[in-house]
Amino acid sequence: MPPRTTILTAALITALLHGYIGLRLLPAMPVPMLVKTLAVIWLALSCALLPAGLLARRFSQPWADRISWIGMLAMGFFSSLLLLTLARDVALAAAWLVGKLLGWQAPGLVAGSALAVPLLALLVTLAGYINARRVARVVEVDVPVSGLPEALHGFTIAQISDIHVGPTIKGPYLDRIVDRVNSLKPDAVAITGDLVDGTVRELSAHTAPLARLQSRHGSYFVTGNHEYYAGAQPWIDELRRLGLCVLMNEHVVVQHGGQPLVLAGVTDYSAGRFHESHRSDPHRAIAGAPTEAGVLVLLAHQPRTAVAAAEAGFDLQLSGHTHGGQFWPWNLFVPMQQPYTAGLVRHGAMWIYVSRGTGYWGPPKRFGAPSEITRLRLVRATE
User: Fold this and answer.
1) How many helices (H) and strands (E) does the chain have?
2) What's residue 346's pLDDT?
3) What's the rounded Cα separation, in Å, for the pair 304 and 309?
4) What is the structure's pLDDT at 383?
5) What is the domain partition of the chain in residue ranges?
6) How far apart are the C-alpha atoms of 126 and 132, rounded to whole Å?
7) Is the pLDDT of residue 36 over 60?
8) Is it the case that residue 2 has pLDDT exceeding 70?
9) For residues 325 and 303, is the Cβ–Cβ distance under 8 A?
10) What three-state secondary structure class fits 315?
């Protein structure tokens, strides 16, 4: 649990930000006093709901999930409200400066923009909710590999990542994902971490649909940082019980059309902080791999594993973790921690594909960063 001073500091900052929104918007709003009073009550309630949503697991069921739902929805709305309030202040400052320089005035701008901010925040939150809760779309990606054997041309991997089964994502949501993955008829399925936000005891009934995954060469899983928050080893055991192959700095050799293909996986980049024996190691994952393998594929939750993966000689790394930012403008901050945010990019001689994630974390909200189920197809590079 965070130190008491950290909790108090976070609570103070949250209260100040809510106060800033109220002071900048409410006085200028052309609405009755009753509406302004209700808005003040909502801002006060939101101050309590945000931390409650994050700490909801301390409550017993079904209240834990209900509080988490309400708190996360409030967090999603608050984030848009805060950003739009800041954008409004910047726009008003710019309009004031233009007015001073050109003698131009915009009657009604202050009042109109104050009313527009919460309405726009509500629309963004609603659109983000719809985008987050619908089944992820399928993204088709061709990965050109130099010297790819003919037998492996067209080999397909269905990647799902960052589903975050937990307070707001349950079995029916995962069921729909599994159905869509199976409809792709992939050669292999890769789950690149952050599957859960909770313990095996809490969520095993909701991860059960994973046992239905179907592919020619099996389903493979690597841990993400959230597995370690929830208790990694029990989840490793549970996923193996469901029939998934959990790769812990190791590899398997898949024979496809008589040609070997190496599928390797590493533990999460941060795993060594939780268990020294789980420290992520791409070189160990590939040790002993057959030299005649047509292609070397690594599953690694965080994109920043790419440096070590390229040094180890992998042709392709599949990652997640970033959510593509999940909703604007958080995508702008991802590069502060990770080298890549989303999509297929080149890292030296190696390709890396970063999924935007198949679920979501925290607020049920995706805006400008749609969730995805990825169908990757290995193809021969045209020299």
Assistant:
1) 10, 12
2) 96
3) 9
4) 64
5) 4-132, 137-380
6) 10
7) yes
8) no
9) no
10) coil
| SS3 state at 329 | coil
Q: How far apart are CA 57 and CA 35, in angstroms?
A: 33
Per-residue confidence (pLDDT) for residue 3, from 0 to 100 = 64
Bridge partners (DSSP) listed for residue 297: 263, 316
User: With contact defined as beta carbons under 8 Å apart, do 115 and 30 qualify?
Assistant: yes
Beta-carbon neighbour count of residue 258 at 10 Å? Answer: 7
Whether 1 shows a pLDDT value over 60: the answer reads no
- Written as six digits, the tokens of 19 are 């106060």
> Got the DSSP string for 246-275?
E-SSEEEEEEETTEEEEEEE---TTGGGT-
Q: Which residue has the higher pLDDT, 104 or 174?
A: 174
Query: What rounded mean pLDDT belongs to the chain?
Result: 93
Among 249, 282, 263, smallest CA distance to 156 is for: 263
How many angstroms separate the CA atoms of 298 and 190, rounded?
Answer: 10
Q: In what order do the strands lie in the sheet with 219-221?
A: 137-145, 372-380, 156-160, 188-191, 219-221, 245-246
pLDDT digits (tens, 9 = 90+) for 105-115: 777 899 999 99
Sequence letter at residue 261: L
Question: 140 has which bridge partners?
Answer: 375
What number does CATH give the domain 137-380? 3.60.21.10
